[in-house]
């Protein structure tokens, strides 16, 4: 065989190999820009980040989950919408991984947020894809990466969701564009009802939606989940207090704030503007696909006169039907809006 014919044969063989490879694999770029090759059609996914399990649910691919987390296994709304979650192995508490059990599940891709977990997963010979976000742009990016991993109809659902999120943000912005700075309420967001001195300040995703919805973070220079003093809260004197998702403990926290003498001088307490943040298949206020609803809820809370026509019960029911295929009753929708568990 002549060198020319040999060269052509090798070129053809190389092309055929590339074609076969491309039919079997795809390259995913994670949030850090890392390239990961995974099967073109993924059927088995481990999701080791609490929040991202909700994105898998949103994208209609929970049937591909072969590993989940303690927080998702304990979330009553996730189980309400997707009862089979109780049969998915719980292999992380968000800090450590049960690696042997994870290997036994044979995931074709492992979604996670912690870099230490990524190292551990990769060392075990699995395909780790890091997803994480601290703002709305990051949320959209993570939704798209997750959809690309899952394949099938997920990318189309992702784009539909992102458009709805952006439309809701633009709708709110159009309604509050004439609101003067002095008319924007100052807002204290307490991370959870079990610790009233842990707050989420302006330098966080919470601070971003407070601003988008026409409010002002009362502690603008603080970040996410920061412990502050009671004196600093009293001095800040917020117009509105929102308590992050703590299940049924949130209502007890509201009553404590209303009755505790140390809170009585605060404007939000005087004017009875202390609220529970809604919670669903994941808390609306942080790392949640339900941020698309949070922005509407917060805007109506801050400026009720400008959003009288927004029915949050209807909006929530429509969201759950569209993305989760789940028909929420009016009573259970009201539970979500109060930050409470499903009615049995």
What does it look like?
With 344 residues, the protein is of the alpha/beta class. It has helices at 3-24, 50-58, 70-73, 76-81, 99-104, 115-123, 136-150, 154-176, 205-212, 230-236, 249-259, 267-270, 291-302, 312-324, 330-337, and strands at 25-29, 35-39, 45-47, 65-69, 90-92, 109-112, 128-130, 186-192, 195-200, 216-217, 226-227, 240-243, 274-276. Strands 8, 9, 10, 11, 12 and 13 form a six-stranded mixed β-sheet that branches. A five-stranded parallel β-sheet has the order 5-4-3-6-7, sandwiched between helices. A hairpin with a 2-residue loop joins strand 8 (186-192) and strand 9 (195-200). Helix 8 (154-176) runs parallel beside helix 13 (291-302). The protein is globular and about 60 Å long.
Summarize the structure.
The chain is α/β, with parallel strands linked by helices.
SSE order and pairing:
Elements: H1 3-24, E1 25-29, E2 35-39, E3 45-47, H2 50-58, E4 65-69, H3 70-73, H4 76-81, E5 90-92, H5 99-104, E6 109-112, H6 115-123, E7 128-130, H7 136-150, H8 154-176, E8 186-192, E9 195-200, H9 205-212, E10 216-217, E11 226-227, H10 230-236, E12 240-243, H11 249-259, H12 267-270, E13 274-276, H13 291-302, H14 312-324, H15 330-337
Parallel strand pairs: 3-4, 3-6, 4-5, 6-7, 8-10, 8-12, 12-13
Antiparallel strand pairs: 1-2, 8-9, 9-11
